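can u do me a favor
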């Protein structure tokens, strides 16, 4: 059986891995992916995921756009070394966020593929939107407060209630967006900061929200009990499937034990 699996093409092996991982037909799946060097095209991966979910299932991807903010790490990286006039010119040239057309290049090829698929739904947050395909897409993504990145008024809360699964396709827990929901649920609440971004029609806006931190996500993931997740190799890298409720609840327990020591 192992020799037969190795002899299959990358897409056939990927489809077999999805079945072994336990993707639920008819369920909700949030996927994070890195496809470089895998031999898998984003279109083929999208179709394989939708096939595994079946007609009743819904596929969700992060479609974040930190490029349209001047308070993001991406902006700081892009403007490093510029003087003030150069920064002002760069800022003036930044295109506003438009949920219908703004790409999400930092999220990877699968996210952009899902976002641009006819019939896809995208949430309206100008920096941390999500895109989805499937019968529950509008229900899950339709009420994203533009002043709440990834908390109770974001699709993450809806995905938690929907008992979604999380697929980390050839990526690690350092990109597990669901852990941010645990941040919002910390008590006492985490610190906040000001965010600024540019949006269609309204121009530059600013708002207060949680000061998001992902520097411990990889360690949190490594400490998750092994019986909460399944793992398979896909194109030379580990792929993980875990329930979102398990991920968020156990991450919250971990964060509650040390996060305030970091502030």
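np, heres the sequence
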């Amino acid at each position: 059986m192992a020799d037969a699996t190795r002899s299959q093409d990358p897409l056939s092996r990927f489809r077999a891995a999805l079945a072994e991982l336990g993707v639920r037909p008819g369920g909700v799946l949030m996927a994070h992916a890195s496809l470089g060097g895998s031999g898998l095209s984003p279109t083929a991966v999208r179709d394989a995921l939708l096939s595994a979910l079946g007609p009743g299932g819904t596929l969700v991807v992060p479609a974040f756009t930190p490029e349209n903010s001047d308070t993001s790490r991406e902006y700081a990286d892009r403007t490093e070394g510029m003087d003030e006039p150069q920064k002002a010119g760069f800022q003036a040239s930044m295109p506003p966020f438009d949920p219908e057309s703004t790409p999400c290049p930092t999220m990877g090829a699968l996210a952009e593929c899902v976002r641009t698929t006819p019939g896809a739904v995208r949430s309206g947050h100008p920096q941390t939107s999500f895109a989805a395909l499937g019968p529950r897409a509008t229900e899950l993504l339709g009420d994203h407060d533009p002043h709440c990145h990834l908390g109770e008024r974001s699709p993450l809360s809806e995905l938690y209630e929907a008992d979604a699964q999380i697929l980390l396709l050839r990526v690690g827990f350092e990109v597990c967006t669901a852990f941010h929901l645990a941040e919002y649920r910390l008590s006492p609440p985490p610190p906040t900061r000001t965010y600024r971004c540019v949006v269609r029609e309204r121009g530059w806006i600013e708002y207060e929200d949680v000061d998001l931190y992902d520097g411990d996500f990889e360690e949190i993931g490594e400490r998750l009990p092994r019986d909460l997740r399944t793992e398979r190799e896909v194109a030379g890298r580990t792929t993980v499937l875990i329930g979102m409720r398990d991920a968020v609840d156990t991450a919250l327990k971990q964060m509650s034990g040390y996060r305030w020591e970091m502030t």
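The chain has eleven helices and nine strands. hope that helps!!
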